[in-house]
């Protein structure tokens, strides 16, 4: 007699799926008039899911081992839900004013978020692929959402083609791993490679899996879609791509390597070290010549994923703890930076050139301060939150004796500081350009909350670090 799986651990995902179905029906009946209602419904769903996630306790595996609810998953789901909710708030007035808003947008964001949460909690390769495809199919549409804009359509097409390729590579790698271990369960794979001597076939499968997940976190050499999609997609969509999906993809990456391949640490560590060094270097040097603020943030995102991978390369609880701390701080700084970009409007038209920020300190002091603080934080200037983020991942790398990786990270941080501080110089020292329009209330709210979060974490990082430490232990 078969027993029904325990649905409790997956309750946040189930509630959001039922909510998404209701939103589709309501939107189909009411048409474009339902847009505002559906935005509020999406935010309510995210809030409800957040409460359900925070109520979870312990470590529970259900659905025949395909789904796991633990401290690590809860921590990363909280970040993902916050990023998705912020994307809805940032998008509301912008897309409506731009004429691109349709009622499907909040529904697609909810569906993508369900896929992200499934990715975070997947504990076998089939569950992982189901969550990944649910997220990806929604994001393909979101990337090209402004369908009357050729740049947005081009961004969507590039993301779709390269995303389909990466999904195929992940699936091929998963099939090889299954072929050489006889199981798709992370626990079963870990048992199969327990001896620490995986065969050549399993290593090839591992490389293909790594290639598939590298695309999702936009790590080199699978980063090529990021600058074009960030620049071509509507700014709130770029903010969404830079926040919630990155949280889920990094959580998925950590769980695969630490959960399924602990016995093959030295094999996958080399892959992660290469991706980390290449991402940090490319992100640092390629951003120097950028004049478009969204392209610059795209290269910054690539570099930041490289820094986060430094913690994963350590393969230790301290390393995972560093990754989680880094992602939380990266989320806040990125949302604040994109909120500033959304406030760069003159006469109702968005401007994206970095030179347009000239003299911002004389026209909008608090926006200038917030933008500058985010740039200092992303550059890793002490004592701001970004400094602590890098400190923890570099410390984990040094403890794991990955000295070269840590040194390269510090050097690329210094290079990256050049283009971050150049923006601060433009804001405070260049001749003033005309003032920007007054930003939307929702955008100002996201900027204020994110900036306060970064400011508090700059001087009180211990609560976040302790929470990450407790969550990281659930993986080991």
UniProtKB/TrEMBL annotation:
<keyword id="KW-0520">NAD</keyword>
<keyword id="KW-0813">Transport</keyword>
<dbReference type="Pfam" id="PF00361">
    <property type="entry name" value="Proton_antipo_M"/>
</dbReference>
<keyword id="KW-1003">Cell membrane</keyword>
<dbReference type="GO" id="GO:0012505">
    <property type="term" value="C:endomembrane system"/>
</dbReference>
<feature type="transmembrane region" description="Helical">
    <location>
        <begin position="6"/>
        <end position="26"/>
    </location>
</feature>
<feature type="transmembrane region" description="Helical">
    <location>
        <begin position="126"/>
        <end position="145"/>
    </location>
</feature>
<keyword id="KW-1133">Transmembrane helix</keyword>
<keyword id="KW-0472">Membrane</keyword>
<keyword id="KW-1278">Translocase</keyword>
<dbReference type="InterPro" id="IPR010096">
    <property type="entry name" value="NADH-Q_OxRdtase_suN/2"/>
</dbReference>
<feature type="transmembrane region" description="Helical">
    <location>
        <begin position="102"/>
        <end position="120"/>
    </location>
</feature>
<feature type="transmembrane region" description="Helical">
    <location>
        <begin position="75"/>
        <end position="95"/>
    </location>
</feature>
<feature type="transmembrane region" description="Helical">
    <location>
        <begin position="296"/>
        <end position="315"/>
    </location>
</feature>
<comment type="subunit">
    <text>NDH-1 is composed of 14 different subunits. Subunits NuoA, H, J, K, L, M, N constitute the membrane sector of the complex.</text>
</comment>
<dbReference type="GO" id="GO:0005886">
    <property type="term" value="C:plasma membrane"/>
</dbReference>
<feature type="transmembrane region" description="Helical">
    <location>
        <begin position="327"/>
        <end position="345"/>
    </location>
</feature>
<keyword id="KW-0874">Quinone</keyword>
<dbReference type="GO" id="GO:0048038">
    <property type="term" value="F:quinone binding"/>
</dbReference>
<feature type="transmembrane region" description="Helical">
    <location>
        <begin position="38"/>
        <end position="55"/>
    </location>
</feature>
<feature type="transmembrane region" description="Helical">
    <location>
        <begin position="237"/>
        <end position="258"/>
    </location>
</feature>
<feature type="transmembrane region" description="Helical">
    <location>
        <begin position="441"/>
        <end position="460"/>
    </location>
</feature>
<feature type="transmembrane region" description="Helical">
    <location>
        <begin position="157"/>
        <end position="180"/>
    </location>
</feature>
<feature type="transmembrane region" description="Helical">
    <location>
        <begin position="400"/>
        <end position="421"/>
    </location>
</feature>
<keyword id="KW-0830">Ubiquinone</keyword>
<comment type="function">
    <text>NDH-1 shuttles electrons from NADH, via FMN and iron-sulfur (Fe-S) centers, to quinones in the respiratory chain. The immediate electron acceptor for the enzyme in this species is believed to be ubiquinone. Couples the redox reaction to proton translocation (for every two electrons transferred, four hydrogen ions are translocated across the cytoplasmic membrane), and thus conserves the redox energy in a proton gradient.</text>
</comment>
<dbReference type="GO" id="GO:0050136">
    <property type="term" value="F:NADH dehydrogenase (quinone) (non-electrogenic) activity"/>
</dbReference>
<feature type="domain" description="NADH:quinone oxidoreductase/Mrp antiporter transmembrane">
    <location>
        <begin position="122"/>
        <end position="415"/>
    </location>
</feature>
<dbReference type="GO" id="GO:0008137">
    <property type="term" value="F:NADH dehydrogenase (ubiquinone) activity"/>
</dbReference>
<comment type="similarity">
    <text>Belongs to the complex I subunit 2 family.</text>
</comment>
<feature type="transmembrane region" description="Helical">
    <location>
        <begin position="366"/>
        <end position="388"/>
    </location>
</feature>
<feature type="transmembrane region" description="Helical">
    <location>
        <begin position="200"/>
        <end position="225"/>
    </location>
</feature>
<feature type="transmembrane region" description="Helical">
    <location>
        <begin position="270"/>
        <end position="289"/>
    </location>
</feature>
<dbReference type="GO" id="GO:0042773">
    <property type="term" value="P:ATP synthesis coupled electron transport"/>
</dbReference>
<keyword id="KW-0812">Transmembrane</keyword>
<protein>
    <recommendedName>
        <fullName>NADH-quinone oxidoreductase subunit N</fullName>
        <ecNumber>7.1.1.-</ecNumber>
    </recommendedName>
</protein>
<dbReference type="InterPro" id="IPR001750">
    <property type="entry name" value="ND/Mrp_TM"/>
</dbReference>
